[in-house]
Amino acid sequence: MGKLIVSLSPHAHGTDTVERNMFGVIIALMPALMVTFYFFGLGSVVVTATSVAACVFFEWAISKYILKQGRNTIMDGSAILTGLLLAFNLPSNLPIWIILIGALFAIGVAKMTFGGLGNNLFNPALVGRAALLVAFPAQMTTWPKAGQLSSYLDAETGATPLSIMKWAIKSGDASVLDQLPSSLDLLLGNHPDGAGAMGEICALALLLGLAYMLWKKIITWHIPVSIIGTVFVFAGLLHLANPAYADPISVILSGGLMLGAIFMATDYVTSPMTPKGQLIYGVAIGFLTVVIRNWGAYPEGMSFAILIMNAFTPLINNYVKPKRFGEVPAKN
User: What is the pLDDT of residue 193?
Assistant: First the structure.
């Protein structure tokens, strides 16, 4: 009879790796990226290439020359993903030097300062966007119209659906909402008179990415569904109370809500670990997004809502803990 040899745990190994998940999310972003190139042309190519290259460079340089790490992490895909998500949160006519500053904040401040991948408290791409929004509010809120394929810095700008919603609330005039594209146009990206950040142009492309990530089990449904469901309920109640508030479908399909709910709130590092914690996290993000959009200074509230809840993630993880294997519930 052969000897039974028991090695140290773990005894079971999954197929998940950092590289697999990061490049899986990048693949899920491809439909939205192609749509972005189609609608914004040269500007989107310049902004995306600059953002990705800058994020990869800053991670390599900081790892090698400041942290002096023996193994560089630029091949795991996380810097590329951060660059793509940062680009998706920017206007397609943003000057290169401003993009470089945003990439430095995303990688240097939000990620590498905390020790690199797996240690950051806040979503790096959203930190980069928030820093640029505070430092360069005019450039970050000037949105080129879609369809100007060869224009970059001189692109014609227009009003976004969110700015139209904001003006309707401010004026109390529900007829202002007639300027909004239809729900179908918002879904397909048909914004003839305005657009927004590059990654929010077409909700359908983002939903295709969601379907891919759910199929590949890269993420679970808890965070996206809880965010979108909460926004639908809260925005619907406001619309019923006052028609000057946009209908919930338009609210969901406008701005960066779909992008944030699907690709940024679901970040492994900055979101809760348990399904119950993820539901709490998603509901809070959805509620805060509607509050900031309707009563905050900026028309968009998704980024700030996610960053606020990133800070609460450790508390949620501490409050909603999974039961230990073999643990017996305490008796009163």
Answer: 60
Provide the residue type at 281 as one letter: Y
pLDDT of residue 329: 56
> Which two three-digit tokens encode residue 275?
């399904």
Strands of 181-286 (E only): list them: none
Task: Of 35, 27, 25, give the one whose Cα is nearest residue 199.
Answer: 35
Convert the pLDDT of each residue in 257-314 to its tens digit: 999 999 999 998 899 999 999 999 999 999 999 999 999 888 888 999 999 999 999 9
What's the token pair of residue 321?
A: 């803990």
User: Model pTM greater than 0.70?
Assistant: yes
Q: Which two tokens stand for residue 246?
A: 């946009």
CB neighbours of 315 closer than 8 A, spacing ≥ 6? none
**What backbone torsions phi and psi does residue 144 show, to the nearest 5 degrees?**
-65, 145
CB 326 within 8 A of CB 282: no
Residues in the chain: 332
C-alpha to C-alpha distance for 213 and 31, rounded to whole angstroms: 13
Helix (H) or strand (E) holding 307, with range, is: helix 302-319
Greatest extent of the chain over all pairs of C-alpha atoms, in Å: 85
Degrees, nearest 5: CA angle 52-33-59: 15
3-state secondary structure (DSSP) of residue 77: coil
Q: Is residue 270 within 8 Å of residue 123, measured between CB atoms? A: yes
